[in-house]
Each structure stands twice: as structure tokens, then as C-alpha cells.
Write a structure and sequence with these properties.
heterodimer; A: mainly alpha; 3 helices; B: alpha+beta; three-stranded antiparallel beta sheet; 41% helix
Chain lengths: 128, 141
């Protein structure tokens, strides 16, 4: 019963955190010539989250908990810029800022769902 | 926890943009520098940015996919230094000419604005990551 208590939000939190750092690296390289902005297809990565597409640490006995590996660099895709720039950089700051704040909100949403789940469980366990 | 990477990534961006602001300040300060020798006159300096890949961690945790930025070096502009006839200048050469530094003030001002914006955005990214981490730590309270 408690294996999947937080549903998809556990994965969403992990992947969301990784995605935020990928977008942060796009923002950090906004002025680097030749840098190609990258991002993940969040829906696709999350949909694959339960399959074996991720490299996982081997578990040799039944008592071991498999490690959540998140997405790999192979899941990253290059962004298509709206307008090409002369120095080959494909970071478009407004796009990255929008993606960053969207990822921020998604992360907080997942956190909120997890928190309310914990509150529910506390309520149930307190037996009132 | 991958959100901690944001501090490294955006921190490297802050460092790079600070170096850029420093060279801009140096260039603007020397915009009016002159010298009698064309090879010795001040030349505009610009940093070269390069992606700093986290190659050590290219594995299953997605860390190899994130990258900071570093300053590869500072190069001097190859634009020609303008010559001005000013025999009263003590630095003038024997023909009475001085060479002006090749700093383009307009270019430097736009560079400064761009560095300023990039710096502010990276600060914002760090603040957001910090807020998210604090909220994650407080999970369940």
C-alpha cells in the first residue's frame, strides 16, 4: 500500500529538479558562442519513468531498494531557436526564463501534492 | 539532489559575467588613453566564454547534461588604433602624432547592459533554486 503513496509526484519532483538545472545551464551559457540550448520532453521522460529505460543500480537481493536514476543526457534534446544568431548560440533568454518559471511552478505543485498526501496520512494515522 | 547543481552552474555564470564587467570597466576607463607608439597603446579587452561541461559526472543522474560557463581567456581587440595629430602632447611621437586606444564606447556600454542582465538572471535562478530546496527540506511540515 505504501509503495506508491505519492504516485507520480515522487518522479516528477526528481525529474523537475533535474530539468531546472538543465535550464539553469542554458541561462548560464546565454552569452557563450556556439552553445546549443537543451531541454527534455518532460511528458515523454515522465511517461518512461516506470519502464526500464533508465540505467539503474543493480539490486542483488530482495531487500535492496533500486536507485532512482532520473533521466540521462541521452534524453536531452536541442531547442529549435525562433531566430538564428550569428555566433551559433541558440539560447533565447525569454524562452528559457518562461521554461524556468514553468518548471518552478510544476516543482512546487508536486511538492504541494506530496505535502497534502503526508497531511492526509498523518490525519488517518492519528485515528480521529 | 540535482537542484544543488544550479548553484554551481549559475555561480560560474556570475563569475564569468563579473569578469566581463571588469574588462568593460577597464576598457571604458582607458577609452581616452593615448600613446606615441601604436604597439603600446591600450587595446580593448574582451573575455572569451566557453561551455564548462561536467564531464566527470556524465552518467545516469543527468549531471553530465548540465554545463556551467568559464572564461577561456581575455583577448585584445585587433581593431586599428586611430591616429591623431597632437604635437603638444608629451606622448606624441617625433612626427607629432599620438595613437588613440581602439575602445568603442558604445560597444562597451551595450556589453555592460548585456552582462548586467545576464548577471541578474543568474541571481534569479539561484534564488529560485534556493526557495525550492528550502521548501523541499520542509516537506511534510
Amino acid at each position: 500500500m505504501f509503495d506508491n503513496i505519492f504516485g507520480i509526484h515522487e518522479r516528477a519532483l526528481l525529474l523537475g529538479g533535474q530539468r531546472i538545472s538543465v535550464i539553469a545551464s542554458n541561462i548560464a551559457n546565454a552569452d557563450t558562442p556556439g552553445f546549443k540550448a537543451r531541454d527534455v520532453d518532460f511528458t515523454e521522460v515522465l511517461a518512461n519513468a516506470d519502464t526500464q529505460s533508465f540505467l539503474q543500480a543493480k539490486t542483488s537481493s530482495a531487500g535492496q531498494v533500486p536507485l532512482d536514476a532520473g533521466f540521462t543526457s541521452g534524453d536531452l534534446k536541442y531547442r529549435n531557436p525562433f531566430q538564428a544568431s550569428l555566433d551559433g548560440n541558440t539560447v533565447e533568454m525569454p524562452v528559457e526564463q518562461a521554461a524556468f518559471s514553468a518548471a518552478n511552478v510544476r516543482y512546487q505543485a508536486s511538492l504541494m501534492f506530496i505535502n497534502s498526501r503526508i497531511a492526509e496520512m498523518n490525519f488517518v494515522l492519528s485515528g480521529q | 539532489m540535482s537542484l544543488f547543481n544550479v548553484f554551481d552552474i549559475s555561480g560560474s555564470a556570475l563569475n564569468a559575467q563579473t569578469i566581463r564587467l571588469n574588462t568593460t570597466a577597464s576598457n571604458l576607463a582607458n577609452a581616452e588613453s593615448v600613446d606615441g607608439d601604436e604597439t603600446k597603446v591600450y587595446r580593448a579587452r574582451h573575455p572569451v566564454f566557453k561551455t564548462l561541461l561536467d564531464s566527470a559526472a556524465d552518467g545516469t543522474d543527468g549531471q553530465g547534461s548540465v554545463a556551467g560557463v568559464r572564461v577561456l581567456g581575455v583577448v585584445e581587440s585587433k581593431a586599428p588604433a586611430a591616429r591623431r595629430y597632437d604635437p603638444s602632447n608629451p606622448l606624441a611621437n617625433k612626427d607629432g602624432y599620438v595613437f588613440m586606444s581602439n575602445v568603442n564606447s558604445i560597444e562597451e556600454m551595450t556589453n555592460m547592459i548585456s552582462a548586467n542582465r545576464s548577471f541578474a538572471t543568474s541571481i534569479e535562478a539561484i534564488n529560485t533554486a534556493r526557495d525550492l530546496l528550502l521548501k523541499t527540506i520542509a516537506m511534510g511540515h
